[in-house]
Design brief:
Helix content: 40-55%
Distance between the termini: 62 Å
Strand content: 15-25%
Strand order of the largest sheet: 2-1-3-4-5
Radius of gyration: 28 Å
C-alpha cells in the first residue's frame, strides 16, 4: 500500500520575501521521490509560530486522529512546532496513531531507523527537562519553608458564632456567605466543625 502523506507548511508573514510555495514544492518533490501519495496540504499563511492554536495545524491534528494519512512532512521543525516540548507532544501523538514524521531540513524521518533513534533521544531530553523543572520547584518550596515563609492561600479569621446564629435564624449557606463576605465552602466547613468558640481560624 502506498503511504499517504500530509504536508504542513507555515509562514508568519507574506512580506520579507517569504513564500510558502517554497516549502510545499520541496516537500511534494520529496514525497514523490519516496513514492508517497500526497493526500493533503495544510498551510498556515501569515500565522505566528508562537501561537498554540493555528487553524490548519488544528485541522491536521484532527485529521491525524481520523487516520487520514500515514506520514506528516514539514519543511523545518520551527515551521511546525513552537517549542521542543510542543514538537515532542505532537510526535508522541503521531507515534501513538502509527503516523510517521518527516522534517526535510533537519533530515529527520521516523520511517527510518536513524529517525526513530533521533525521536527517542528527543523524548529522553524532554523527560530530563521536565524532571529538572520539577526538582527546581520542589527545591524552591523547601527553601521557602526553611525561611519560615507561609505557602498556599492566606488564612482568614472567621466568626463562627455569627455564622451559627445566622444559620439558627434559618438563613441559607449562600445567604450567610453573601452577608459575611465568606465563600460558601468556608461557611459550610465552619458549620460542620461546630466548635463552641467565638472565632476560629481556618483555611480560606
Amino acid at each position: 500500500m502506498t503511504p499517504r502523506v500530509a504536508i504542513y507548511a507555515r509562514v508568519s508573514t507574506t512580506n520579507h520575501g517569504q513564500d510558502v510555495t517554497l516549502q510545499t514544492r520541496e516537500l511534494q518533490q520529496f514525497a514523490e521521490a519516496r513514492g508517497w501519495r500526497a493526500v493533503g496540504v495544510y498551510i498556515d499563511d501569515g500565522v505566528s509560530g508562537a501561537k498554540d492554536s493555528r487553524p490548519e495545524l488544528n485541522r491536521l491534528m484532527a485529521d491525524a486522529h481520523k487516520r487520514c494519512f500515514d506520514v506528516v512532512a514539514v519543511w523545518r521543525f520551527d515551521r511546525f512546532a513552537r517549542s521542543v516540548s510542543h514538537l515532542l507532544r505532537a510526535l508522541e501523538s503521531f507515534s501513538a496513531l502509527g503516523i510517521a514524521f518527516v522534517s526535510l531540513s533537519e533530515q529527520m524521518d521516523t520511517t527510518t531507523p536513524t529517525g526513530k533513534m533521533v525521536f527517542t533521544v528527543l523524548g529522553a531530553v524532554a523527560e530530563l527537562e521536565r524532571s529538572l523543572i520539577a526538582e527546581r520547584v520542589r527545591a524552591g518550596l523547601r527553601n521557602a519553608r526553611a525561611k519560615g515563609k507561609t505557602l498556599g492561600r492566606p488564612r482568614i479569621s472567621v466568626d463562627a458564632m455569627r455564622i451559627g446564629r445566622l444559620r439558627a435564624q434559618g438563613r441559607s449557606i449562600r445567604e450567610i456567605a453573601e452577608e459575611l463576605g465568606y465563600s460558601r465552602g468556608v461557611v459550610h466547613k465552619t458549620l460542620g466543625n461546630r466548635r463552641p468558640i467565638e472565632a476560629a481560624t481556618i483555611g480560606g
